[in-house]
Amino acid sequence: MKWLAAGAAAAAAIFALIAPLLLKPFGIYLISMWAVLTIAALGLNLTLGYAGQVSLAQGAFVGIGAYTVALLTPVGCPFALAFLAAGALCFAVGWVLGYPALRVQHHYLAFVTLAFSTLVFLVLRNEEWLTGGIYGINGVARPSFFGWSTFKALNFYYFSLGMLAVLAAATWWMLRSPWGRAFVALRENPVRALSLGLDTRRYTLMAFAIGSSLGGMAGALYAPLVQFIEPVSFTLGLSFNLLLMVIVGGSGYFFGPFVGALIAVLLPEWMRVAQGYYLIVYAMLVMVMMAFCPSGILGLLERALKAFAPRGKEAAP
Amino acid sequence: MSAVLQVSNLRKSFGGITAVDGVSFEVREGEILGIIGPNGSGKSTLFNCVLGQLSPNGGEVRVDGKPTTGMRPCDLNRLGVSRTFQLLQVFPQLSVRDNLILAGQEHRGTMLSRLIGRADAGLGDAADQMIAFFRLSHLSSAPAGLLSYGQQKLLDAAMAFMAGPRLVLLDEPAGGVNLTMLGHLRERLQAYHAERKATFVVIEHQMEFVMALCTRVLVLAEGRIIAEGAPRDIARNPAVIEAYLGH
Questions:
Q1: Nearest-Cα residue of chain B relative to residue A186
Q2: Would you call B72 and A194 a contact, using CB atoms and an 8 Å cutoff?
Q3: Could you report the per-residue pLDDT of B40-55, keeping only the tens digit for each?
Q4: Domain range holding A129?
C-alpha cells in the first residue's frame, strides 16, 4: 500500500510539472491558486485533521499573510523576508488564538475562531490608513530571485509549486517525527496523552501556531499571485472553503489537502457549463460526496484498497 | 525501605459529598499495594487526586519526598509516576508499536530534539522489547483499535511501563478481562515486578487477582481507610466483610 501511495504521489508530481505546459494562462492561474491554497489547507489539516482542533480562522491567516507581503514589499523589504515575516506573524497570532483551545473544544472552539475571523475582516476593512480599507491594495509585485522573475504566469506557477513542495516536505517531516504522534494523541485522547507526559498545552498551541503559520505563508504567495487584495477575499467564506478542502480530500490524511484543494479550485470552474446553476450543482456534489464518504476521498480510496487487498491475519482473536 | 509515595490526610469533596475523607498511607519501594473497596468508596477519586487529574481540597501528596499535590499529570509522569485508567485508554488509530513509543517519547530529549531527531525517538528497540514482554509481537504494526479488549488492556499496562517509571498506579487492570487473559496479565505484571523491582499501586474489584498479586492491601469505604494489612488477613477482616456485604 505504501508503494502504491508513493507511486501515485510521484505520478502526481510529474503531472504537476507537465500540466502548465498544456494549459492556457487562465488554466495556469487556476493551478497556481491550487498550489497556494493547498499550503493553507495543509496548515488547517495539521490543526484540525491531526491535532483535532477545530478552526474557522484559516482564511483570516491567509489574509494576514497576504497583507503582510502587500505592505512590506512596496517599502523595499525583500520578498523572502516579507514571506518569513508573514509566517512568523501568523505563528505568533496563531499561538495566542490557541489559548481558547485549552479551555473549549469542538463547536465552542469553532465559534471562538469564527469571531477571530470576523475581527480580522473588520480590521482589514476599517483600518484604511494601513490596509486601504474596502479599496484594498493594488499592484502587489511578483518577486524576482537572482535575476529569475516570477512575473510570467508559468514562472509564478513553478515558484508556487516549489514553495508547496518545500513546505509539504517540512510538514511531512514534522508529522513523521514524535511531534506528529503527539498531535494524533492530542486528537484521540488528550487525557491519556497528558498522563503519558505529553505537555498537551504546549502541543495544542504548537498545532495552532504552525497551522496558522502555513496559512500566513499561503497568503504571502496569494498576494503576488492575484496582485490585488481586498478584505472580502479573506472573510469566513475562504475559511469554509479551506475547511471543505480538508474534509473532502480526507481530514488527517497527508495528501488530503492536495486532493481537496484540486476539487475546490477546479470543480467550480468545470461546473461553469451549468451557467447560473453551477454553485447549486457544486454544492449538491459536495453534499453527495460527504454523505457517501465522510472520511473524504482518500478515506474512501483507503477503504476500497483494503477491500481489494488480500486478507491478512486478523488482529483480534 | 523508603517510601516512594506518601499521602497525608487527603480530602476531596464534590458539593456536599465527601469522596475522600482524610486518607493517609505510604507506598514503600518495591511493594505492590492493593486498594480495594465497594463501588463509590472513593478509590478512583483518590487515584485521580494523587495523579493530578483532580485537585484535592486538602492534604498532601509526596513522591520520593517531593511535594506533588496539584502537580499536572504530565509533570508527575516525568517524575516517574505512571498510570492506567479504569476504562481503556489506548490510541486506536496508532499502531501498537507507536502507542508504546508515544508512551516513552516525552522522556527523551527536548521538544526541538524530538522534532529534528529520529522518528521513533530512539525508542524502537525498547518498544519492541516491551511488545515481546507482553507477548504482542504478532500485533506490533496493527492499529491498537483492532486489538481485542484483553489485548488492549495488556497494551495499556505496557504503555504505563514504557518510560521505566518508579511508581505505577493501575486502575482496575482486570476490569472486563476474561479469565485466560486475566491470568496472563497477572503473570506479566508479576514478571515485570520481579524483573525491574517496580512499585505498584493497584485498584481492583477482582479479589482473586488482588490476593494473588498484592503484597499489602488497603481497604476504603465511604472515603476512609477501614483496614490495612496482608491480603490473607484482609480477606478475614469483619469490617471489610461488612463493608462489602452490608449489614
A1: B91
A2: yes
A3: 899 989 999 999 989 9
A4: 26-235
